[in-house]
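User: Before I run my own analysis I want an independent prediction to cross-check against. Here's the chain; please return only the structure tokens and, at the end, one sentence I can use as a sanity check.
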Amino acid sequence: MYKELKGIPLKYNEALADSAIAKAYYEELLYNNMDALNMLYVATTRSKDYLYIATMTKKELKLSNMGDVINFTFDEQFDENGVYEIIEPVIVESKSEESNFINLNSYPTTTRLSELYVPSAEKHLKHLVNIEKSGRKGSLLHDILASASNTKEVEDYAINLVLQGIIKEEEKQQLINSALEVLNNPELKEILDKASESIVEKTSLMPMGNCTVLIGY
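Assistant: Structure tokens:
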């Protein structure tokens, strides 16, 4: 019958101790007592200065909860009013008036948060200026090819880099030659000549921040 029903709501009481589910009843009883004992431990070990515990008295002493356990443990130590008191003076440690504060003439601050609000164009230039030497040429060449699609645009962009102090005058021609070498690559040039429109990274970004996605087949 239990197998077909799978679950039956029962009233938790002592009568279940003599039923077919006595094992489950005693397991639940054990877990409940363990939880109550843990709660009593926490309550008696967290007090700072004073601890008061109140329990209910019963005419017949019967262990059914943690209050009964306390009553049973201190049964012979309660006075006529049912009070068991342990009086111990509370030791108050005097706190040293000396402080470990560090006096600073100025408070250290950082500009890392303000860098988030630097315009993207300025961030880009700062990156080109501070880039490591090993990858500097490649990054500059990529930057030129991302913004230029013909010889004039390459030369104009390189001149602009010189004017901004990002590259030296003697570096300009080498970068122009490297960029034109890529643009004038026969295989690449054949593909670009067939295109009806030339889209570089700069022109692929829309005014509202949208991006044109290019898919090749």
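Sanity check: The chain has three domains: 1-51, 54-86, 118-204.
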